[in-house]
Amino acid sequence: MTAPQHAQALLDYIDASPSPWHVVNTTASKLKSQGFTELGEVSAWQLRTGGKYFVVRDGGSIIAFVLGQHPIAEASFRIVGAHTDSPSLRLKPKAAFSSQGMAQLSVEVYGGPILATFTDRDLSLAGRVTVRKGKAFETKLIKLDEPIARLPNLAIHMNREVNDKGLVLNKQNGLPLIFGFAANTAEAHQALIATLASKLQVAADDILTWDLALYDTQKGVLWGISQEFIANSQLDNLASCHAALEALMATKQPQATSICALFDHEEVGSESATGASGSFLLDVIARICAATQTSNEDKLRAFANSFFISADMAHAFHPNHAGSYEPCHHVLVNQGPVIKTNASQRYSTNAQTAARFIQLCEQAGVPYQQYAHRSDLGCGSTIGPILAAQLGMPTVDVGNPMWAMHSIRESAGVLDHGYLIAVLKQHFRS
Q1: In degrees to the nearest 10, what's the CA dihedral of 91, 96, 97, 103?
Q2: Which of 232, 313, 421, 423 suits 260 as a labelling partner, its CA being 20 to 30 A distant?
Q3: Which domain does 159 fall in, by range?
Q4: DSSP type of residue 174
Q5: Is residue 272 domain-shared with residue 212, that is, in the same domain?
Q6: Omega into 237 within 30° of 0, i.e. cis?
Q7: Are the C-beta atoms of 383 and 312 separated by less than 8 Å?
Q8: pLDDT tens for residues 36-91?
């Protein structure tokens, strides 16, 4: 595939995946189309050398793997990790209410979005809904395609300092979205439930609970005078998820057991059963070892000889804000993946793991860059340090450069996505 084709495939992946649960569903569909077999956590596992498998936990996290040709004790693991969630606005359990005859939706901030970017956008709802089924319940994915909600800006005539001091939105009072008219809260609630029920083709009374997020209905695009850039929601971190997935699906008969692990809840700290701080990856590895009769001693030997790449997007240099960046660490869009380093271990990279990634880039014919954050600014983190601590495994933090991280509309480079896929393929082959 050409770089623009890789980029368009990424945009299609994101457009189909407006929530973590949709990300996992889209990913699972792609894996099945490539001959991967789904495993259940409640079922016994029987694995074969060279077999391709995946397992889902609670709908929001997925781990796929190809069992290596060589014993785990000898060939070890090659792992790429990323996260399925992005900063967003999530609906509260009793979200709909009426204010002065306007039907509104009460939301909660998930992660650290740039809230001002949610204003004046064509928003809709996506996520999962639990529906009564006899005496039990089932979970259904839902994606409302048409815009149903909006967060209109206050006119400049009533907010004269907005261009000088920026738009500040109170998280409780400034974020409820308008979605229609309602004389009272009961009517607003009924309107919301009726919309969900109609989409799911179920009775309104059978809707029990939901995990729903607002998403931007505008599809992703290529842009720039030569179409050299991409724009979409959730590039952080679905670009890394897609690159890892594409690399794993292209991996045929690897010597080492190759794993792609995509986790929910990174944006809120990963402390959950489906997050990187949970047991999911360790559980999967333990079951792989049990199914292959790999002893605990051999598993620990393998960990010491493995390599884990934490893939999460990086901060591209913005020419209008040069003072926000560390001198000599201006990473540029379309100049290759970024190795991210932080002395306080907000990133897991060290000199040895950085060198190892550089060698993978050289072998794949891919350029690379190095990034460090300004010392007087707080540095974000990734799943890298969390899993490095859990696994005791050599780990590096990398990611493609992007602009407007945590905006509802982010931008990155067309070339970089193909570069990252290529180096992750090299990683799985190594």
Answers
A1: 110
A2: 232
A3: 88-216
A4: S
A5: no
A6: yes
A7: yes
A8: 999 999 999 999 999 999 999 999 999 999 999 999 999 999 999 999 999 999 99
